[in-house]
Amino acid sequence: MPFGALMPTLFLYLLETEFVEIHEEYRDFLISNQLIYEHIFNGYVKDFIFQDQVSQSVYVQLEFSAEWFDVRLTWDPSNYSDISYIYVRRSQVWVPDFTIRNSEKTEESLPEETQYVYITYFGLVSTFWNLVVRQPCTLKLEKFPFDTQTCMFWIYSNSAGMDEIFVENRIVDKMDVKTWGNGEWNVVNVSVRDLIIYGGDTENEMQVGEYSIVIKRTTAYYVTIILIPCFLCTLIIVVGLFMAKPAELIGKLSVGLTGIMALVFLMGLAANSLPHTATVPDMTIYILTCLMQIVSSVLYVLLFPNDPFTKAIASLDFFKSEDKSQTRSRWRSVCRLITVHNLLCLCVITAAFVHLMILVNT
Fold first, then answer.
1. SS3 of residue 201 by DSSP
2. Which domain does 32 fall in, by range?
3. DSSP secondary-structure letter at 275?
4. Do 209 and 274 fall within a single domain?
5. Is the dihedral of CA 255, 260, 263, 264 positive or negative?
6. φ and ψ at 108, to 5 degrees?
7. Pairing of strands 165-171, 37-52
8. Are 179 and 226 part of one and the same domain?
9. Where are the transmembrane segments (predicted)?
10. Whole-model pTM above 0.70?
11. What is the pLDDT of residues 219-245, one digit of tens each?
């Protein structure tokens, strides 16, 4: 008899002959006080699709392979042309239920016609799930955009306790996570551990597989589009304010207002990609610092356009002397350069640069 003809005959025999006394509605389940099944979850993250920062959720493509024993699905190969295994549709057999806790959305990415289970003659059943899961992932944005996030997935049976089910959760060995992720996020590590949730008594104990995915943000976009332009904008505006002639007051005011508008635009660009949380990211603090430096510089130039402090220094008797010595000439040249305006300009630029370096290296 051809193998294709044997498979449906064998499968019907397994489902009907062995459990005639079980009601049709409950035929797919074993009603017993003993352990129903012991199965193994081999799970790994196939691909990190993307992180939705505004809604604080993550889309991940998960793959799971599971194995368990079903005493109903056993046969003697000698009675069926030495057939030791068969493939059947997953929807035709009992499979262990599992739930991804707090999942906002879970979809099977493979079409139903490709969802098969592998059954051996001694009752070992194995199958494969390919899921796209949307899971909440609370973001910690203190170090944004140089942050690392950890997203958790909890997988457990929703209908059986530990007296009925034992699950071994594990990660596929030698996974190369370097190729995972997308343009913004890189997967750093994937790990799993088994947890026991105690509900007050043994019957309410639940075994949970906790899968942890550590992801790190790619910072090139934020550094080149926001941070470096912010520093350069501050540099050019502060230099323009302090180095221009005092008579060019209107021009200084125009430069300052232009810089303020530019930094407000950069801040809006950063805010559009972030959720509304109580945490203020480091990048936002840096942009605010640059903004305050520009505002302070504009106010100082408007209030003290002629640099009265430098004039007071230049009026000292030491600088009024007619001595033509080389030393005094050098001091006069240095005094013309070391004005209060120039010193303030240097301090503001240095502070902005140091803040940027601290932000990048933390």
1. coil
2. 3-218
3. -
4. no
5. negative
6. -80, 120
7. parallel
8. no
9. 220-242, 249-271, 283-303, 334-360
10. no
11. 888 888 888 888 888 888 887 777 666
